[in-house]
Amino acid sequence: MLGVMGSAVGAGADRSEGDRVVVLVAGGPDGPRPRVHPSDQPLLLADDLAAVRGDGCFETLLVVDGRPAKPERHLARLARSASALGLTGPTAEEWRSAIALAAREWGRGSEAMLRLVLSRGPERGGRETAYITVAPVGPHAVRARAEGIDVTALGRGFPADFAASAPWMLLGSKTLSYAANMAALRHAAAHGFHDVVYLSSEGEVLEGPRSTVVIARAGELVSPPVEVGILEGTTLGALAEVAAREGVLVRRERLLMTDLIAADAVWLLSSVTLAARVRRIDGVTLAGGDPGIDVAGMVDRAVGRS
User: What is the pLDDT of residues 259-276, one digit of tens each?
Assistant: First the structure.
């Protein structure tokens, strides 16, 4: 059973933290697809492999005033993750139709996070399960945008070139197996930090559990390349398009922790929090001045918030 409660309310209405919209895209109870599913009724079977194995993939995108932000980037990445897992899933057009339905059902007037989920389906056999949930953007994301964050650096335990030699590890895919990422975030919170920057076994900067690392240096933006076994950031890709129009170069380069500490500014980018400026890494307070690049503003323009 998918235990999400709440129902859609009219466009422009305020949303409570418990509000949810659920749209069934594939699998689940019989009926037309896509369709709004009552959020207080069961959707997943108890042996669905999303629940018992984390066997599936997902994407989360921002909804701004009723409009999904950069859906094509998310659908392209979802397709890559599904391919790595050997999943078929709904077609891109089926996902688009379901996204539009979910956004309409949510309405305008409040930002939301819209999550696409694709599971291998029931362990007993049967169709893959695909569904969408929509929920309010949490207050922690709003605070991170406005106030910045403190992060801790944690080792991920494998070398930066591990992804090329071990494709079965699904590095660079956005899978439902997120227990380790959530454990890292709980560890960070227990020690007074808001988020995490992962390091390879050699000390290279990788990514956050739910974010992409970007630094400002000498008038440019620099982020680690996907070749180090990280997820391709959709927000970074959208930012790069805006940056190019505004004359700011975005480069991909292997980074060390010393690069972050010496940078003009550091951000963690993600689809819902958007741009969270890093104030401190472990015991080191980072430069707090104007880096000369309005990353938060460019991200807002990239996702349609301004």
Answer: 999 999 999 999 999 999
Which pLDDT score is estimated for 14? Answer: 64
3-state secondary structure of 55: coil
Residue 98, pLDDT above cutoff 90: yes
Residue closest to 156 by CA, chosen among 184, 131, 114: 184
The DSSP 8-state label assigned to residue 5 in this structure reads -
Output b/e per residue, 188-224; b: 16+ Cβ within 10 A: beeeebbbbbbbbeeebbbbbbbbbbbbbbeeebbbb
Q: Spelled out in words, what is the top-level CATH class assigned to the domain 141-303?
A: alpha beta
**Count of C-beta atoms within a 10 Å radius of residue 70:** 19
Q: So where are the chain's domains?
A: 21-136, 141-303
Assign domain 21-136 to a CATH class. Answer: alpha beta
Residues 177-231: tens digit of each pLDDT = 999 999 999 999 999 999 999 999 999 999 999 999 999 999 999 999 999 999 9
Burial annotation 98-107 (CB, 10 A radius, 16+ → b, else e): bbebbbebbb
Distance, first Cα to last Cα, the chain: 39
Tokens of 30: 């019989």
Alpha carbon distance 173, 151 (integer Å): 23
Q: What is the pLDDT of residue 10?
A: 35
Question: How far apart are alpha carbons 18 and 32 in whole angstroms?
Answer: 27
CA–CA dist 89, 112 (Å, integer): 24
Please choose, from the candidates 273, 276, 277, the residue with its C-alpha nearest in 3D space to the C-alpha of residue 303: 273
Long-range contacts of 199-203 (CB under 8 A, 24+ apart): 199/153, 199/154, 199/155, 199/156, 199/257, 200/155, 200/156, 200/158, 200/159, 200/160, 200/162, 200/228, 200/229, 201/155, 201/156, 201/157, 201/158, 201/159, 202/159, 202/160, 203/256, 203/257
